[in-house]
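Hey Z.,

So I finally got round to the copper (II) ion thing we talked about over coffee. Here's the setup:
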Amino acid sequence: MIKAAAALAALAYTASAVSAATPGGSTVIGSSKVSGMMLFNGAPGKVVILDKTEGNEAQIDGHPAWGEEYDTESNTSRLMRVTTNTFCAGGMSLGNGTWAAFGGNEPVGKDGNQTQPRFSISAPYFDGDGGAGARFYTPCDDGNCDWVEGFKMAVRRWYPTVETLADGTLWIGGGEDYGGYVTDEGQNQPNYEFWPPRGNQAVDMPFLRSTVPVNLYPLAWLMASGKLFVQAGQDAILWDLDSASTYKELPSTTGPMKCYPASAGVAMLPMTPANNYEQEILFCGGVQRPLNEWGNGGGPAYNPLNTPASKVCERLKPEDDNPTWTQDDDLITGRSMGTFVYLPDGKLWFGQGVHMGTAGYSTQDYNKAIGISLGDDPDYQPMVYDPTAPKGSRFSTEGLQPMKVQRMYHSTAILLEDGSVLTSGSNPNADVTFDNAAPYTNTEYRLEQWYPTWYNEARPSQLNITQLAYGGGNFDITLTAKDLSDDIGNIKKTKVAIIRSGFATHGVNFGQRYLELNSTYTANQDGTVGGTLHVANMPPNANIFQPGPAMAFLVVNGIPSKGQHIMVGTGQLGDQRVSAATPLPASQDAPPPQPKQSSKNGSASGKSSDSAAGIVAPGLKAAAFVGAGALALLSIL
Ligand SMILES: [Cu+2]
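And the result:
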């Protein structure tokens, strides 16, 4: 009897150990049907995965599938219709909630070979030319919406970067006509264009000519002034989009190469009231080799598999009066293709990638065991980076277990609503491959979810906001004793974080931003634990955090609520109706404990006790996320 009970208990323990989330650990939650070369969080509980054209087993419309929407709560998915070759596209969300994926490759057959005749849509994959492709997806409620194709950019772009602008339209820059390890002058695209198109012509950008050969997926962020910061090779500029000219040449770094295929991990550091929304970019890892060794489209002029990836982290404030590259803490282990993902608490998860070599693949004789991969020795150990920690202690692996699945070339990671990180992909092969001698270089479909150390803590209530304006009125959030973990002291440690998780591909989550809203508080004056958080709208400058979809988290003492999908801005392209910010009331602490007395009339901060609600600027309608996002594709043409 006792024995049976013990056996049962052991069984129960095993079962829960398998299914439960281990803080600091991870779980393989299922498998995608297409390999996760591109990944974004498009709607509550739903991520979209895009692959390149290849021989996935899952079929749609008589050809292999290359797109999928995966439900992270039910672990079910539906295939999506993507027919033009998305290898290696770039993408981002527009200010109206539509997602876009631009560029890629010509039609290919098996093993990525050109179709015969070239550019024909033919067996076995029946894919179309994605070189200048522009594809759009607007999330909807009914599980039926899909990619809409048939639009074209002005030029072909393989490896383009996409950044949202202050009016919610897109900047699409760089890339090359056809694939290659690095850019060749013959097929470089030293230019950019907009979507919706402005005159249907690419605008010349000399910086993308002078940075050949290491300028694919140029690293670009819109800055508070409206200038575009662009980094490629070891150089950097601020670009004036209005005059279409270089506004300022920034110092070059002597540190590692950061652009693809060196593929450093990059992120704009969280913008907070405490740092006055200062914009600082962090670059970690990559590969340090002289410019003349990067070779050409066919492959590198050195053997990357013998080259350890860099540990070096550098920061730059592009709009400082005198911007300088400053050394940050080293990565704990060197990394190419490492990926930063914001966590709602204001720290950054860093994972994925390899210790040796670079992104990309090419047929060489370096190491046949790993097929054609130019990177090796995957790093399974995630780190957490705390930008506010004292120097010397910013990276930590404390309490973090190694991940289970390698994430080499063509892998991705994205933030989920519950504050965990979903990782997908890895496929350093020209086509679906299961027979490399080193199995970790085979095509990978497993999805693995990583859990922050606070994952199982009691969480504050989810916010009930749907839309945020730029400036204008403030709104109140009622904080219960439960939200504050029964400790009134936590009201001082409460914030609202807005995160755009962005469009993940090739080790970069394009468009990723973190902004803490300005806030003050009024603690309950009656001695009970609770109060009101007074929260400002977005700062009155759409360059700081561009319009479009994002998630909002209530964070109390470092523990976040579940993320609420919201719309930042009007939900439409064009003028975002920026207005001056209304000052917040001064914070009011709880009175010091008094001798007990009757307090029938003593309750009350006098603040609204409504549940949290987003207040938007006058003239804006608070719209549900899907409502704001579901607009006719016509409006972006
Ligand atoms: Cu690629």
